[in-house]
Amino acid sequence: MVQSCAEKISIQKPIRFISEYLSLDEIFSELEHKFCLSKEKIEEIKQVIEVYPLKISRYYWNLIKSVDDPIWKQCIPNIAEIRDQVGEEDPLAEERDSPAPLITHRYPDRCLFLISDTCEMYCRFCTRKRKMGTEKLVINLEKIDVAIEYIRNHHEIRDVILSGGDALCAPINMIKYILKKLREIAHVEIIRLGSRVPCTNPQRITQELCDLLKQFHPIYINVHFEHPNEITPESIKACEMLANAGIPLGNQNVLLKGINDDPTIMGELYKGLLKMRVKPYYLFQADFVKGTNHFRTNVETGINIIHGIRGFISGLAIPHYVIDAPNGGGKIPIIPDYLKSLDEEKVILENYAGKKCEYLQVQ
Ligand SMILES: *Cc1c(COP(=O)(O)O)cnc(C)c1O
Ligand code: SF4
Known about the structure:
Blueprint: H1 24-33, H2 39-51, H3 58-61, H4 70-75, H5 80-83, E1 103-107, E2 110-114, H6 141-153, E3 159-163, H7 172-183, E4 190-194, H8 197-200, H9 207-213, E5 219-223, H10 233-244, E6 249-254, H11 263-275, E7 278-284, H12 299-309, E8 320-325, E9 330-333, E10 339-342, E11 346-350, E12 356-360
Parallel strand pairs: 2-3, 3-4, 4-5, 5-6, 6-7, 7-8
Antiparallel strand pairs: 1-2, 8-9, 10-11, 11-12
Helix pairs in contact: 11-12
The structure holds pyridoxal-5'-phosphate and iron/sulfur cluster.
């Protein structure tokens, strides 16, 4: 029998300034008056949000410079979302590979644990679009306790990845409760959190939060930046505070058509991230998710990006480019073809600049 943690902690929703998020009225008014969007376009957006909700932090909204810029495309609904006839609700079969509530356990030694049902904004390309901001993703203390019990009973799990939604959008006392419980489990060696907060509402990275997280080391955080326009004094400061708390930071991003599907933009993003102490970790090919088809590129685009930056900028700046294979196949790396031939005698390689090189095999 699992005891609910409701008795032990009181979970309060964090107190937020009203002005931290735009209301729908404010958004529609600004779209009409500031960005001069037509009545038809605004009607389209209203149709989309009947199906896929809209939420934007004021900070992120203020990064928009013009209609359809790389920030706009990430946060403003597009009619293509509901006209999308391809794509699947859950292409990664996360629900099927869920042996306990909130858990996806696919790899031998690690699991995903969804601890938050919300985010600072709803990214239009989200892989969990099917449930973001809807009643399909409901986190409660009872489920959290069952999930922790699952991890406790599975001794092979040495790495727990806290996600959501956005892991850092969970109430702070809930984050504390979960970290404390996980740290009591001897076989849990590392804990990772996935969060877009440093990018989408960086002032929520407070000293209080950093002081809390650093009590539970080794903690790793994967942040999520998509475009150089997201690198601002505020996001730099948020990452600096986390890094100063001793937390290694990685970046996971998605290859997005019309946003970052270009080696120069991606190179700028990755160099900018290194400067703010964030190591690019994964670049994901966009998943085959219903409602996001207009963001997908072909795979050659990703290969060309990696080929176009490898060797030209610091090796530290190069992420693994992966396809999260449909049906729960997991993340599979895609590497440009540097290996031209391989036999018992020698290997023929091509370097970043296109020069052929030969390496003799051991005889
Ligand atoms: C991405 C993912 C992980 C973590 O994978 P790493 O390659 O170790 O970063 C674990 N479980 C699931 C279900 C995932 O999707
Ligand atoms: S922050 Fe992450 S989980 Fe939340 S909507 Fe964006 S991509 Fe999805």
